[in-house]
User: Fold this.
Amino acid sequence: MQKIRTYLGIEIKYPKTAFFELSSCEGCQLQILNKEATLLNFLDLVEIVNFREVMSNRSNDYEIAFVEGSVTRADEVTQLLEIRQQAKTLVALGSCACFGGVNQLKNRFQNLEWVKKEVYGNHPIETQEVRPLSDFVTVDFSIYGCPVKKEEVEEIVTNLVLGKSIEHPRYPVCMECTANGNICLFNLGEPCLGPVTRAGCDAWCPNNRMGCWGCRGPADDANLRQLQKIMDDHNIPRQAMFDRLECFGGFTSAMKEMDR
Ligand code: SF4
Ligand code: SF4
Ligand code: SF4
Assistant:
C-alpha cells in the first residue's frame, strides 16, 4: 500500500522506486546501501519495489527507475526499453550508465573476437559495443561518478520526491579541491583532471592525495586545451592525460578536437 504523508499541508507520496543493473560492477548500488547512518532516512523517502542486491520481491509497478551500468548486450537493450516504458522518471546511475564508464574501454579493440577468445577461451559470450543509456532511451536525469557519491544521490532523490529542481555543479573539481585547502597535486608532479571535470564529489580523490581521473565527465565549458598546457607546463607526458581522459568515456566527444 502506498504510504501517505504531508509537508506544510501538502501531500507527499512515497514514489515507487526500482533499481536495475545492466553491465556493471554494481558498485553504485552498493554505495546507496553504504553508510547505515543515513540509510533509514533514504528508505523513508521512497517505496522500494525492486532492488535485487537487497530484496527478493519484484514488481513492475514503479515510477522512478535507477539504472546502473552500460548497454553491452541485445537483451539489455530490450530490458532498458521496457524500463523506459514503465518509469515516469529514468535516472542513469553512475558513469557506466551515463558515459559507458570503464566498460567502454573495450570499444578501443578493433578485433573483439580476438579479445573474447583471449578472455573467455572456449566459453563464448555475447557482447557488443558498449554504449550509454542515452543512446537508446531518453534519460531524465544523470548521476555521475564511479561510484556515485551517496550523499549526492540522497540529495537528488530528496529533490525528486519533493518535486524540486535538480542541478549539477557547473564548475570543475578544482573549485572543491581548493576550498578544501588541498595542495595542488600538479605541484607534486601528479597528473589530475580536476580542472576539466564536473564537481560534486567534493574532490574525493585529491582529498586523498590522488589525482582526479575524470569519472564525473566534463564540467561546463571544460577547456581541454588549457588542461594540455597545464600538463605540458608540469612535464607530465601527454599519454598520462589521455589515459585518464579515456578511462570513463565522459570526455570522448571533447577529445575529438585534441591533438594526440
Ligand atoms: S560507475 Fe563505476 S562503480 Fe558504478 S557500476 Fe560502473 S564501474 Fe561500478
Ligand atoms: S589537485 Fe587537481 S583538483 Fe586539486 S587544485 Fe590541483 S588540479 Fe585542481
Ligand atoms: S576526484 Fe575525479 S575521479 Fe575522483 S571521484 Fe571526483 S570526479 Fe571522480
In short: The mean pLDDT is 91. Residues 173-255 form one domain. The CA atoms of residues 5 and 90 lie 24 Å apart. The longest helix spans residues 74-86.
